Amino acid sequence: MSEKRATTGPLPVVPFLKIPDDGEAYLEGCLCTRCDAIFLGQRSVCSKCGARDQMETRRLSNEGTLYTYSIVHRSFPGVAVPYVSAIVDLEGGGTVKGNLIDVDPNPTKLAFGMPVRVTYKDALGRKDCDGNSYLSYFFQPRSQSPRGSR
Ligand SMILES: [Zn+2]
After folding, report:
1. Cα 38 to averaged position of ligand 1 atoms, centre (Å)
2. Measured between alpha carbons, how far is 113 from 128 in angstroms, rounded to an integer?
3. CA–centroid distance, residue 117 to ligand 1 (Å)
């Protein structure tokens, strides 16, 4: 059995995760220049106002707040449970679904609106048939800034 070797760095796990040759990974969205709506990934038509061909790509923020979540107790074989599947509103626009890590999967430890950070890590050791690894994104809790205290 021949062993294939990866010839590139990690592959993005989704098309809207961008990995520049020099620099940090980031999430990319597009902005409607007519109504300022922001969506993940690329599109040519705004689903908020219907404008065509008025979208510009934008680098999305790595900081946001937890909009909602679900604690997953049953998943595919080999997927460790429980884990927190979250929807996060990014600062400056964009709403992203992903897993919230480094937190107890317990409702008493999770608050709607809690500040989170997007972090980029290997996608749990998974590889394609050529041996390429995948880079994925996750959310982590971040401490609230003093100016944001209530
Ligand atoms: Zn629009």
Report:
1. 8
2. 36
3. 27
Distance of alpha carbon 33 from alpha carbon 47, whole angstroms: 13
Q: Please name which of 70, 61, 11, 65 lies closest in space to residue 40, comparing C-alpha atoms.
A: 61
What's the CATH number for 61-141? 2.40.50
Each domain of the chain, given as residue ranges in start order, spans 12-60, 61-141
Tens digit of each residue's pLDDT (9 = 90 or more) over 103-127: 999 999 999 999 999 999 998 888 8
Q: State pLDDT tens for residues 36-60.
A: 999 999 999 999 999 999 999 999 9
Question: Residue 32 C-alpha to ligand 1 middle, in angstroms?
Answer: 5
**What pTM, to 2 d.p., does this model score?**
0.86
Residue 147's φ and ψ, nearest 5 degrees, are -70, -20
Ligand 1 being an ion, which residues bring their Cβ within 5 A of it?
32, 34-35, 37, 46, 48-49, 51
